[in-house]
Specification:
Length: 153
């Protein structure tokens, strides 16, 4: 049995492993970060840590829209950094049985950003892979944008 934090994004039902999620909070304005990768819309302060805010719509090729009052930030950690992702709504924690999990490569080979699909009574849940979310080039660009030398420019 696995615990996942499920969330909605433009009609998609997505999830992250519970152990990767720190919290969900109401969306706040992000401070723009010059020279950051295109999917980074800025940074926020989370308990004294500067955390990049990721626009999942850009990553998944969905239509852009302004962040609304009902939107939320899902704060989670990849293997290398803490990230805040703008989502329409956090649904909550769902439990899934291993028998309901399907590896995404067995459905469509080479799919990035997803590790699997879970069949649930409410439909298909796409499980997001934070460790492959940012490409190596995006990781480097984000590191450069966050470095003290970049902010001194």
């Amino acid at each position: 049995m696995s615990s996942l934090v499920a969330f909605n994004l433009e009609g998609l039902f997505l999830a992250l492993p519970l152990d990767r999620v720190a919290r969900a909070v109401r969306a706040v304005a992000a401070t723009p970060l010059p020279q950051a990768p295109e999917i980074v819309c800025g940074v926020i302060n989370v308990q004294g840590r500067i955390v990049p805010v990721i626009n999942l719509r850009r990553r998944f090729g969905l239509a852009e829209r302004e962040t609304g009052l009902d939107d939320q930030l899902l704060i989670a950690h990849s293997a290398t950094r803490m990230l805040a992702m703008i989502v329409d709504a956090v649904v909550g924690v769902i439990e899934c049985d291993e028998k309901d999990f399907v590896a995404v490569d067995s459905v469509v080979a080479g799919t990035r950003h997803l590790t699997g699909i879970v069949k649930s009574p409410d439909g298909m849940v796409l499980i997001h892979d934070l460790d492959s979310f940012l490409s190596l080039e995006e990781e480097r660009a984000l590191d450069a944008a966050l470095s003290p030398a970049a902010s001194a420019d």
